[in-house]
């Protein structure tokens, strides 16, 4: 077993037993799919937290904050698993630890800014530090190890702020905002450490196919949670024609989002990522998936909350906050897709821009109208856009692979 990168290989990734084999197209493993189950629960908890707050601005801010933390924990683990083989025992063990910490973090979400704030903060900090410490310990000295030492240093730097925020009620928001800002800015700052420099994104070679697939699966998690939430809501009511129509409209709305992502933006993004040089692929992966997928996931979660309101009370007049959830969720989703398209230099079509404008303009118009009417309006906009986008999006040649490295 070699503990160093082969001479002249052109990569900083060490070729040791627990790493994925370089030069082979990687796919998501069964253990990675098992790992994602914890985050299905976490996304459900986030939706319930926003619903329990009765769509107040405070509840929305808390949910958005915890969504960022949950996504960041999953995102960092996905980057790590892009290089490390989950089929090996040591990697499975560390991912199991991350799963347990993530489960505790998800359990704390309903009281994440209340009685369980310390559990939420400690779980998040522990999984971030524990995962990065594992990489530093098991990899040999070299550029890859140095890069993860930098990531570990940033995680350790933010941890006291997370814990302090969990302990001090009055200072929770400012402490946690600083802690999260520190974590979010790490990739942009290239994990600069005083006296040791930065970790350039050109050193973060990734497997484009595996990376795109993992984030596609997270989008499916969010969409699946939306369907589950509306299904559970409908099963808890006395079914009527109106509720059945609301359930159908909400379901078709989720299908439209799936269609727009998987038949439109996602193949273009994956193709661009897979055919980028090793100098560019790290920065592209960081920008598109680490940052620009946040509004995509947030939009799905917000739409799920709106769909629950519609299915529970399809004939009731929508308040402004409810209309904002039903229409603002898809608009946020589309803004994320537009941002990703711009980042890969794919021409954004005017229909998507127009759809965002129509959805947002519809919020004050649909406020006061029934939930079913509001959801139907959203479905018409999304369905029309899906048809137009599929017609304008070129199909990539069959058989092309996405390796995430220069030929």
Automatic annotation (TrEMBL):
Signal peptide start-end: none
InterPro entries, sorted: Low_temperature_requirement_A (IPR010640)
TM stretches of this protein: 57-77, 89-110, 116-139, 151-168, 174-194, 215-237, 243-262, 288-306, 321-341, 348-366, 372-390
UniProtKB keywords: Membrane, Transmembrane, Transmembrane helix
Record organism: Jiangella alba
PANTHER family documented for this protein: BLL5714 PROTEIN
Pfam families reported in the protein's UniProt record: LtrA
The protein's name: Low temperature requirement protein LtrA
């Amino acid at each position: 077993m070699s503990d160093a990168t082969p001479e002249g290989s052109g990569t900083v990734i060490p070729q040791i037993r627990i790493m994925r084999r370089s030069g082979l197209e990687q796919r998501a493993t069964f253990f990675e799919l098992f790992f994602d189950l914890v985050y299905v629960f976490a996304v459900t908890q986030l939706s319930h937290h926003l619903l329990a707050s009765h769509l107040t601005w405070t509840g929305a801010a808390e949910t958005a904050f915890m969504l960022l933390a949950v996504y960041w924990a999953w995102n960092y683990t996905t980057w790590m698993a892009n290089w490390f083989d989950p089929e090996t025992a040591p990697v499975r063990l560390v991912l199991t630890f991350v799963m347990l910490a993530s489960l505790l973090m998800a359990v704390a979400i309903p009281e994440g800014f209340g009685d369980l704030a310390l559990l939420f903060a400690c779980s998040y900090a522990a999984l971030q530090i524990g995962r990065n410490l594992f990489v530093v310990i098991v990899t040999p000295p070299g550029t890859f190890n140095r890069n993860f030492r930098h990531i570990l240093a940033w995680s350790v730097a933010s941890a006291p702020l997370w814990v302090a925020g969990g302990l001090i009620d009055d200072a929770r928001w400012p402490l946690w905002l600083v802690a999260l800002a520190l974590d979010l800015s790490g990739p942009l700052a290239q994990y600069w450490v005083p006296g040791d420099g930065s970790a350039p994104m050109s050193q973060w070679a990734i497997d484009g196919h595996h990376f795109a697939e993992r984030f596609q699966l997270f989008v499916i998690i969010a969409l699946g949670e939306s369907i589950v939430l509306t299904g559970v809501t409908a099963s808890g009511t006395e079914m009527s024609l109106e509720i059945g129509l609301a359930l159908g409209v909400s379901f078709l709305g989720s299908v439209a989002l799936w269609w727009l992502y998987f038949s439109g933006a996602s193949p273009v993004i994956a193709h661009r990522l897979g055919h980028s040089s090793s100098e560019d692929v790290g920065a592209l992966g960081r920008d598109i998936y680490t940052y620009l997928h946040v509004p995509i996931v947030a939009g799905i979660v917000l739409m799920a909350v709106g769909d629950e309101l519609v299915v529970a009370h399809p004939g009731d007049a929508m308040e402004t906050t409810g209309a904002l959830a039903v229409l603002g969720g898809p608009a946020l989703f589309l803004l994320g897709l537009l941002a990703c398209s711009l980042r890969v230099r794919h021409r954004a079509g005017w229909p998507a821009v127009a759809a965002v404008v129509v959805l947002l303009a519809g919020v004050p118009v649909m406020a006061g109208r029934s939930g079913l009417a509001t959801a139907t309006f959203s479905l018409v906009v999304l369905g029309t856009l899906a048809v137009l986008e599929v017609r304008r999006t070129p199909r990539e040649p069959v058989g092309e692979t996405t390796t995430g490295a220069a030929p």
